[in-house]
Structure formats: C-alpha cells, structure tokens
Design goal:
There is one protein chain. With about 450 residues, the chain is mainly alpha-helical. The protein has one domain (about 5-255, about 310-440). It is about 70% helix and about 5% strand.
C-alpha cells in the first residue's frame, strides 16, 4: 500500500464511521423533541420515558461524533498539508461556523439532559429543539465545505496562486444546496428506518410493547416521509452533477460513449478496458430524460474526457447502483406503510410489516456510505475539482500505512463501545423507563 492509497483509505475509513455517528446525532434530537412535545400535550408518561431513553442515545452519539469529528480535523492537516495550505483560507468559514454550532449544541444538550424538573417545561423542550437545529446546522456546514471541493469557487486561480479570496462565495458554492439537501434527507431516512427497525424488533420480541410501539411510530413516520421525498433531491443532485462534473455522471452510469438518446444503465458489470457494460439492463433515452428533461438530448460520455481525468468507473458505478437500489426499496416500504396507515390501521403493528422494517434497519446507512463513495471516488483524481489533484495534495511524510492501521483500531474500538452502550441502553429500558401501567400483553 503506497502512501497515497493509505491516506485515501484512512480518510475513507474515518468518514465512513463518522458519517453514521453524525447522521444519528443530528436527527435523533428531533425524534426526542417530538416525543417530549407529545408528553407535554398529553401528559402520557410513556412519552416522557421515551424522551429520556432517546436522550441517552443522543448523548452517546454526540460524544462519539465529537471524537470522530475531531480526529477527522487532525487528519485533514496531517494527510493533506498542501490542500489545507491553499484551501484552508478559502473554505475555512463553514468549519469555523460548524464549531460554533457544535458548542451551541453541547450547551443545549447539557441543559436538556440535566434540566428535568429544574427548568420551565416548555423551555426544557425548547433546549431539545435547539440540540436538533444546531446539530443539523453542523451537518449542513460540513457538507458545504465538502461541496466546495466538488465545485470550487470564491477565489481566482492564476499562475498557481489562489487570489481574490471570498469565503462567503466559497461556502455558498454551486453544489452546496443540492448536496446539503440530499444529505439531510438521507440522514432522516437512514436514522428513521434504523431506529424504527430496532423498536420493531423489540415489539416482535414482545418487550414493552406499548413503549416500543410509540417509539416505532415516531421514527417510522420520519424515516418513511424522508424516503419518499429522497428521489426528488436525488434527481436535483444528478442534474447538478451532470452540469458541473460530467466525468462523475459518466462513471456513475458507466456511460462510456457520448450519445444522443442515452440509455439508463441498471446493474451491469463495467468493462473499462473495452468501454462496455456487461449483463446490464438498458432503458433507451431515459438517461437523456433524467439529465435534460427530454429523451433525445446528448449526454457526454467518458470518451470525450481526457483519460487522466477519469474516475474509477467500477467502484463509482457499483456504489451508485447500491445507493439507488436501497433507496428505491426503502421508498417501496414507505409506500406500503402509508397505505396501511390510510386503509388498514389495524395492521400497523402486524408481524409482516414490522419484519420489513427490521430487515431495512441497516439499509439507509449502507445507502449513505454508498452515496459518499460516489461523491468522493467520483471526484477523483481531484481533491479540488479541476484545480488540485489528490496525488499532489498528499503528505510527503512516509509511514501513512502505519497511521492507517492505528486509526482503524481506534474506530473499531469506538464502534464496539458504542454498540455495547446502545445494547445496554435498550436492554435497560424496562427497568429504567417503564411503569406497570405501561406494560401490555397485547398480541401482534
């Protein structure tokens, strides 16, 4: 493993872990706020217990997200010093604002966790809302920094110099809105399905059924609504990528030849050497329609892009297919859920529907990991698109493979701790949060 591959692998590992912690940390507070609001309006003790249970999960993911995010900040400087030397003054603003949002989130979370029976009830609820809003702002600001790497702006690059720097324009670059929208909705869908799946499993195991039914309902509504609107944000993102990064779109679709009435490729095994896709389903004209709004316009292929600027097609195409496939499956589950909610409410907690949600528990996060693979691998060979290559940005210091192994051990250890804490939290729900009147033997 050479240093460039080791550095890229370390960043991929770090981002792969952090994105899960970050997504849950920015979405779970909204679940918590909804259950808290339900308690304030109904005075039903189950909602209060649920709020307290979820707040412990929020605290766990806030702490782990802070650790993994701090490590990422160090890695940017250690692994990519040339990148940070030039890019830091340009896109540093969203990182600075993200730090502010993080501190607001930390203060609000402290108020919420320790404010029970101390603050006014509605002010206490408001601090939970602030946790969610500031966490969401943190995520959007980090995505704004990443979007700048895909759509660099706010400076003039002349004779190898970065001049006329405008941090505000850099932060609000052409890609920030589409990436932030797509990522935010994905976070709600993935977290909603994951949380709903865990509570669905508890219902199937007949553990504190009423408690888990209420938790399942809140999480499922968030997750299914997000999954239903996600294709709209995906369409906006794809059109934006087609305009700004035609090489990435071509790699996503394994689109080797520029052509009119371009076909949409479903599945398949890209053969980069022979410029073809084997075993694929092709729908004529549909790619042109998705990109341009009609079935005849030309879509640029990899043949019209210099070979040295081609992203890895195989990885990008597979990741894109996984993301779209899992997103489609989650959307279908969402349609079924709302049909049941509308027509057959007595089947809301039926075994077959709960089993669907249990099976879908990890799918949203797998789709997110695949989506980030498309974003990052599809941008290669650039770290700043069209300006600086990844190879030119990597540190000249040797021994990155050792660092990769060290960071891998840290993240794996952190994940083991998180899984243990969450398992213990779920297992302790009966003793900590349930009261005799909240337990039922209602059959499924």
């Amino acid at each position: 493993m050479n240093d460039l591959l080791a550095a890229r692998s370390q960043m991929a590992l770090s981002l792969g872990f952090h994105i899960i912690y970050a997504c849950i940390g920015m979405v779970m507070p909204f679940f918590m706020a909804v259950s808290h609001y339900a308690w304030l309006k109904t005075n039903n003790g189950i909602y209060k217990n649920l709020t307290k249970a979820w707040s412990k999960g929020v605290a766990i993911f806030f702490a782990t997200g802070a650790v993994s995010g701090t490590m990422l900040s160090f890695e940017l400087g250690l692994l990519w010093p040339r990148f940070m030397e030039h890019a830091g003054p340009i896109f540093g603003m969203p990182f600075s604002l993200e730090g502010t949002a993080f501190f607001i989130e930390a203060i609000a979370l402290g108020f919420f966790l320790y404010g029970w029976d101390i603050f006014n009830r509605w002010f206490h609820w408001f601090t939970g809302v602030v946790v969610g809003i500031s966490g969401l702002a943190s995520g959007i600001l980090v995505v704004a920094a990443n979007s700048w790497m895909n759509s660099p702006s706010g400076f003039t690059f002349r004779n190898g110099q970065y001049l006329d720097i405008d941090p505000v324009k850099a932060m609000f670059n052409d890609a920030w809105f589409t990436q932030a929208l797509h990522m935010t909705i994905a976070a709600f869908a993935a977290t909603g399905f994951a949380v709903a799946g865990v509570h669905a499993l508890m219902i199937l195991r007949r553990r504190n059924i009423v408690f888990h039914q209420k938790a399942f309902t809140i999480a499922a509504i968030f997750g299914t609504l997000a999954a239903l609107v996600q294709p709209l944000s995906g369409d906006i993102s794809a059109k934006d990528v087609a305009r700004r990064q035609p090489a990435k779109l071509a790699a996503m679709e394994a689109h080797f030849e520029t052509e009119e009435a371009a076909s949409l490729v479903i599945g398949g095994l890209p053969d980069e050497k022979n410029r073809k896709v084997d075993y694929a389903i092709k729908i004529p004209g549909l790619l042109s329609f998705l990109v341009h709004g009609n079935f005849k316009d030309e879509v640029k292929g990899l043949n019209d892009i210099p070979v040295q600027n081609h992203p890895p097609v195989l990885i990008t195409h597979f990741a894109f297919q996984i993301m779209v496939g899992l997103g489609t499956f989650m959307m279908l589950i969402s349609v079924i859920y709302f049909l049941v909610l509308w027509k057959k409410r007595e089947m809301l907690f039926s075994r077959w529907l709960l089993t669907l949600f249990v099976l879908a528990t990890p799918l949203g996060f797998i789709a997110i990991e695949a989506g980030w693979t498309v974003t990052e691998v599809g941008r290669q060979p650039w770290i700043i698109y069209g300006i600086m290559s990844t190879a030119d940005a990597v540190t000249p210091m040797p021994g990155i493979a050792i660092s990769f192994g060290f960071f891998a051990a840290i993240y794996l250890s952190l994940s083991v701790v998180v899984i243990y804490l969450l398992y213990r939290q779920i297992k302790m729900v009966p003793q900590l949060y349930d009261k005799p009147e909240n337990i039922t033997n209602k059959t499924i």
